[in-house]
C-alpha cells in the first residue's frame, strides 16, 4: 500500500506502478490512496538513531552499513532528449525522416522489422529511448511491426487522427515527438486486445545479445517473462 499526502504526487505514483507492472506478466497488487489517518510514534522513537547511535533496537549499526554496501543505490536513469530537425535530417534516412517528422507510412511487408523475430528491444530512432520489447511483439498479418503494449505508456502520446478520410488514433513518442504509427483495438485478447501498429522506420532494433553493450542492460529482464 502506498499513501500520499500531496495530490500532486499521484501521477508519479501511477507512473512508478506502471513501470513495475511492465516487468511482470501477472497483475501486481499495489494499492495507493490518500493518507487518511496518521499518528506520530511515541517520543521514544523520534530521532531514534540520534538517541541510540549504536544501532536500531537489537540490530548493530555495522549491519546497516553492510546492507548499504550490499545494495548500492541504482545508477541514475539515462535521460533522452529530442534532436532538432536539422540534426535529424543528417542522422536519418529520407524514409526515416519522412515517417518520424512528416507522419508518413512506409510500405507494408517491405520494411525492416515487420517479420523480425529475434529477442531484443525497440527504441525510438530519433532519441534512442526504449519503447517496445520483443516479448510484446506479435504477428498481426498487417505487414508492420505490431506490439500489444509499450514498455511504459507514459513514454507514448495518443492523438486523434482524421487524415485520409479515416478516424484513427495516432501514436507518438513523448520525448522525441516522433510519429510512430497508429493504435487499434484488434490485438490479441489474451494480451489486452490492443495493437500498436508501428513503422519500422521510426524504430531501431537492438538484439538481446547487444543490449548490454548498447546501454540497455536494465531492460533485459523484460525479455525473460
**Cα end-to-end separation:** 25 Å
Any idea what the CATH superfamily of the largest domain is called?
A: Peptide methionine sulfoxide reductase
Q: If you consult CATH, what is the topology of the largest domain? A: Metal Binding Protein, Guanine Nucleotide Exchange Factor, Chain A
**CATH C-level of the largest domain:** Mainly Beta
State the helicity in percent bands: 10-25%
C-alpha geometry: elongated
Active site: 197 (nucleophile)
InterPro entries: Met_Sox_Rdtase_MsrA_dom, Met_Sox_Rdtase_MsrA_sf, Met_Sox_Rdtase_MsrB, Met_Sox_Rdtase_MsrB_dom, Mss4-like_sf
Keywords: Multifunctional enzyme, Oxidoreductase
EC number: 1.8.4.12
TL;DR?
The protein has 225 residues and is an alpha+beta fold. Helix content is 20%, strand content 22%.
Describe it.
By secondary structure, the chain is an alpha+beta fold. It has two domains: 2-70, no CATH class; 85-223, Peptide methionine sulfoxide reductase (Metal Binding Protein, Guanine Nucleotide Exchange Factor, Chain A, Beta Complex), CATH 2.170.150.20. Helix content is 20%, strand content 22%. The chain has six helices and 13 strands. The protein has a six-stranded antiparallel sheet. A three-stranded antiparallel sheet has the order 6-5-13. A hairpin with a 7-residue loop joins strand 7 (137-138) and strand 8 (146-147). It is elongated. The mean pLDDT is 88. It comes from Prevotella heparinolytica.
Amino acid at each position: 500500500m502506498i499513501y500520499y499526502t500531496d495530490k500532486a504526487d499521484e501521477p508519479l505514483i501511477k507512473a512508478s506502478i506502471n513501470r513495475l507492472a511492465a516487468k511482470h506478466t501477472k497483475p501486481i497488487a499495489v494499492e495507493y490512496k490518500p493518507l487518511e489517518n496518521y499518528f506520530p510514534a511515541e517520543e521514544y522513537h523520534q530521532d531514534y538513531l540520534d538517541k541510540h547511535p549504536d544501532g536500531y533496537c537489537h540490530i548493530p549499526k555495522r549491519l546497516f552499513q553492510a546492507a548499504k554496501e550490499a545494495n548500492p543505490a541504482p545508477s541514475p536513469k539515462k535521460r533522452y532528449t529530442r534532436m532538432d530537425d536539422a540534426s535529424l535530417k543528417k542522422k536519418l534516412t529520407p524514409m526515416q525522416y519522412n515517417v518520424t517528422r512528416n507522419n508518413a507510412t512506409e510500405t507494408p511487408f517491405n520494411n525492416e522489422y515487420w517479420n523480425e523475430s529475434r529477442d531484443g528491444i525497440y527504441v525510438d530512432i530519433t532519441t534512442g529511448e526504449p519503447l517496445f520489447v520483443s516479448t510484446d511483439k506479435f504477428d498481426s498479418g498487417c505487414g508492420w511491426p505490431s506490439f500489444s503494449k509499450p514498455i511504459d505508456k507514459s513514454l507514448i502520446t495518443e492523438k486523434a487522427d482524421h487524415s485520409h478520410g479515416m478516424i484513427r488514433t495516432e501514436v507518438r513518442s513523448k520525448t522525441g515527438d516522433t510519429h510512430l504509427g497508429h493504435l487499434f483495438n484488434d490485438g490479441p485478447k489474451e494480451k489486452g486486445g490492443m495493437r500498436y501498429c508501428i513503422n519500422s522506420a521510426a524504430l531501431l532494433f537492438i538484439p538481446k545479445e547487444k543490449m548490454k553493450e548498447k546501454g540497455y542492460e536494465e531492460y533485459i529482464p523484460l525479455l525473460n517473462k
